[in-house]
Structures are given as C-alpha cells and as structure tokens.
Design a protein that fits this description.
The protein is of the alpha/beta class. It is about 35% helix and about 20% strand. It contains 15 helices and 20 strands. An eight-stranded mixed β-sheet has the order 8-9-11-10-14-18-15-16, sandwiched between helices. α6 packs antiparallel against α10, α11 packs parallel to α14 and α13 crosses α15. The longest helix has 25 residues. It starts with a strand and ends in a 5-residue tail after the last helix. About 55% of the residues are buried.
Length: about 525
C-alpha cells in the first residue's frame, strides 16, 4: 500500500520525484489552480501559458509532464486537469479532486515519492485528494514478475511491471491539526480495504473459491477483532440453506456462508450487510454464451465490498454494530448441478422453481437475507453484481438502488453521491411480481425479461424480514472495469460500493440512518 504523509514542506522546498499541481479549464484557456502558486512563480508566472502551448486545456483526467525550472527541488512537475474552473471564491468539487489525484498517481507509477499540491481549502478537500491519490496508486501484480532466464534481463533493464507510487506527500493540509490527521487516517483505512476488495476480485478463480475466501475473512477477523463464523457444507445442509447448496452443488468447491460481526460496546444501532459471493459464475447448466465467461471471477464483488466494509468499520472504531454476511458459492455445470426445472427449498422455507441456473445470485442472497433478518438489525443492505439488465439501464459506471423504504433509498443515494460513487434510485413495481408466479413452487427465480433488474430486486424482497428497512445495490456495472484506467479507477476490480457502505455505517453510528 502506498504511504501517505501530511507534508510540512512547501511546494518550492519539497524534495520528491515529482510535484503534482492542478490546472482547470478557464473561459480563455487553462487556469492554474490554487496550491500551485509557488510552482507558477518558478515558471515566472507563465505556467498556464506553457501548458497551453503544450496543448493542455485543464480537462478532467488530462496529465501533462514538465521539467521543473530552477527554484523547485523536484525534477518534474505534473499538471493534472480538474475540469471546468468553479465560480470565483467557490471550491473545487471533491470528486474532481479525487479523480485528478488518481490520474496523477497512475502517471507516477514506478516513482518513490510525489508531492500533491492540489487545491485544499478544507479537511474534506484533503481527504478527497488523499483518497484519490491512494486509489489511483493501486496495481494488482501478485501474478506478475516471475523470474525466468528469459525475462531476467528485461527486469534488470526496468522492463518488468511498474510498482505503484510508493509515497504520497499531501501539501496544503495541516499536519498538526487533529481533524486533518483523522481525515488522513480515515483515507488510509478505507482505501486499504477498498484495495483488499480489489485484490480479491482480481484473484483468479482457481485460487479464490468459497473455502479460500472464507479463510481470508477468518484471518482478517483475527487481526481486527471481528468475530467470524463459517458455515461449511455440512452446516448448510443441517440448517436448510437450499439456495446456497443448490447453486454450489455443481462444483467441487462447496459453498460457504460467512458471518463477520464487528461490535462496539456503546453501539445503539446494528447494520447488516449481505454480499453476493459467486467466486466464479459459468451460468451453471444454463451456460453463459461465449465471450461472457472470461470476467466472471468478479461475480463475488458484492461479498468483497461487504467484507471490506466490516473490516474498515472495525479499523475506524465506529460506534455501530456491523454484521457482514458473505454468501459464497461457485456456479458450475456438472452431473450434480442444479437443473432448470428443479425446485429448491430456501432457508426461509419458501420453495423456488429454478427456471434459469444463471439467475443464481438471488438464490444465495435469499438465504443470507433470511438469516440476517433473524437477528433483527435496524437495516439490511445487500450488494451484488446481480443483473445484466441493470448495466443496460444505467451503464458501466452507475449502480442501481432499490429499497422497501423510500427514505432509506434516498439516504443511500445521497451518501453515494457525496462520496463520489455514481448511483441511481430504482423502483420495485408491484406488477412485475406476478411474472415470478410458479405452478410448482412458491416463486420462480425468473420473471419478465423487461425490467429484469427490478424483478431481481422484487425476488430478494421476498426474503427480507418484516419491518426491517432494506436496500439492494446492484453493482453489476461499476464493479469490474474492462476498459482503460481513468481517474482513480483501475482496470479490473474497482471496490465499488465500499465508500458508500462505510459512510452509511458512519451515519448510522451518528444516529442518522434515514
């Protein structure tokens, strides 16, 4: 993990490999952002002119590298675009700062230390820059860099995979101020857990399967004082968890239900989080078509987000009880796999006719939602890469929010927007429920094709305990990024929803559940 320091040095005196400054789009060309005054002075007040000559405009995500002039202790200046400059005396948007810092960090891969002199006028600004820089410095290299006779020469020549920026020195913050220190510590804790989630999502499915995921959770529980309980196949059979067992029975890697419980002695509220943890999804007997299998290691992104959130809550010492439920299974076709037409008896006692074995996430979540409801938490939020229909509706960068309580849904949407995670509230139309009527069982796991993401939400609602506020986050779009990196978003697992869930836990601790 990249180190973070609140530097006492000024932009002109900091010794580092590079110095990052902001540039925005002005009415007549690029405008140097606050924080870069000393750098602009070193360029004789012509930094904006130099950048414009080089083609820079200040557009979001734009990175321009310049050799540093005399008067600075760094060899390189990196100007990163912040987007349109705000009105006079207005601050830059926190998400703009976060993305700019992320873009700069990615450009600095292979460097040991960089100073970030972006606009910081508040604790919130400092935390946004810290988060963006640390998130942007992420790289998944666990399976790269193996030494062989053929590539050892290339590695010596520096042609191997670059390591992330080693240290972020944040300028403009107040190192001795308790609020700034707390913001920096929070940023480190939250980003480290987001990156833990990213690592899990990116891990190949031959190494990450239900049992090994459960082992990772158990180890983290011991480290951070979280009570962990793992239900293996025998315990799931004994408990009647028909959804988890039905999905997992086609694999040689049996399913698991993992409970992580973080408790605070002064907590007055309990938040339950439920994560879909399909460590690999072939579609089962309803096999996915060619071209849709290659990224299905990411189908446990919801469970990774829940796991990361519980650990982050423990590290931050939040005054709220947070319980995470990881519904882990591998969905594979085999002679023992669940068939379309089979009927499963869920943990709730409700029977489900399986019309499509690729609609498996709702089955494992149904069991976990019922089990979580038994403990009567104040609220339940489930997180899942659940439907392609949600990607069609909202695209690859926005997750959908459904809930049985409008105020709770609104609160989560506002929180997501605040922390910089794009989301959108979605309805649960009662008329779509009829499409899941089954002549054989209490409910089918499929309904109408149109509005499929909403149908999945209606299915999950059937397994939530009466009187419990519940929300469903369908993160199928933003959980795994297949394109080129941008801002602080890497290629591969993103850790989507962790920031929203951590902020929700903080709000719950403060008595503002919504």
């Amino acid at each position: 993990m990249t180190a973070l320091t609140l530097s006492t040095a000024g932009a002109a005196t900091l010794r580092a490999d590079a110095l990052v400054v902001g540039v925005a789009k002005g009415a007549k060309g690029p405008v140097v952002a606050p924080g870069a005054e000393a750098v602009d002075k070193a360029f004789d007040g012509k930094l904006a002119t130099v950048l414009e000559t080089l083609g820079a405009s200040g557009a979001e995500g734009e990175v321009t590298k310049l050799p540093a002039p005399a008067g600075l202790k760094v060899p390189v200046v990196i100007a990163v675009g912040l987007g349109t400059a705000p009105e006079k005396d207005a601050a830059f948007d926190a998400e703009a700062l976060r993305r700019a810092a992320g873009s700069a960090s990615r450009a600095l891969a292979g460097s040991k230390k960089a100073g970030f002199a972006l606009p910081v006028t508040s604790v919130e600004d400092a935390e946004a820059v810290a988060e963006g820089a640390l998130l942007g410095a992420y790289a998944f290299t666990a399976y790269q860099g193996g030494e062989t006779k053929l590539d050892s020469k290339d590695k010596k020549n520096g042609n191997g995979p670059k390591q992330p920026l080693a240290e972020v020195a944040l300028l403009g913050a107040k190192p001795r101020d308790k609020a700034f220190k707390a913001a920096a510590e929070r940023a480190v804790a939250v980003v480290e857990e987001i990156n833990r989630a990213r690592d899990l999502i990116n891990t190949p499915p031959n190494d990450l399967y239900p049992e090994s995921f459960a082992a990772v959770a158990t180890a983290a529980g011991k480290e951070h004082g979280i009570k962990v309980q793992v239900l293996d196949e025998k315990a799931l059979v004994k408990g009647g968890f028909g959804g988890l067992l039905g999905v997992g029975q086609g694999s040689t890697h049996g399913p698991r239900l993992v409970k992580l419980a973080y408790t605070h002695p002064k907590a007055e509220k309990t938040l339950a989080l439920v994560g879909k943890g399909i460590t690999y999804d072939s579609g089962g007997i309803s096999l996915k078509p060619a071209g849709h299998n290659e990224t299905m290691k990411c189908d446990m992104s919801g469970a990774a987000a829940v796991f990361a959130t519980v650990v982050a809550a423990a590290r931050l010492g939040l005054q709220v009880n947070v319980t995470g439920w990881l519904a882990l299974a591998e969905n594979m076709p085999s002679g023992n796999a669940t068939r379309p037409g089979d009927v499963l008896r869920m943990y709730s006692g409700k029977t489900v006719e399986v019309l499509n074995t690729d609609a498996e996430g709702r089955l494992v979540l149904g069991d976990a939602l019922t089990r979580a409801s038994e403990e009567n938490p104040d609220a339940i939020v489930d997180v899942a890469t659940l439907t392609g229909a949600m990607v069609l509706a909202l695209g690859h960068r926005t997750f959908g929010i459904m809930a049985n309580d409008d105020a709770f849904r609104t609160s989560i949407h506002e929180i997501a927007e605040e922390v910089g995670e794009a989301s959108w509230p979605m309805p649960l139309p009662a008329d779509l429920r009829k499409g899941m009527d089954s002549p054989t069982a209490d409910i089918a796991n499929m309904g109408e094709r149109m509005g499929g993401g909403l149908v999945a939400g209606l299915f999950l609602q059937e397994f939530v305990g009466e009187g419990i506020a519940w929300a469903h986050l369908d993160i199928a779009g933003p959980a795994f990024h297949e394109g080129a990196p941008y801002g602080y978003t890497p290629k591969g697992g993103t850790g989507s929803a962790v920031r929203t869930l951590v902020k929700l836990a903080e709000r719950t601790a403060a008595g503002d559940l919504g």
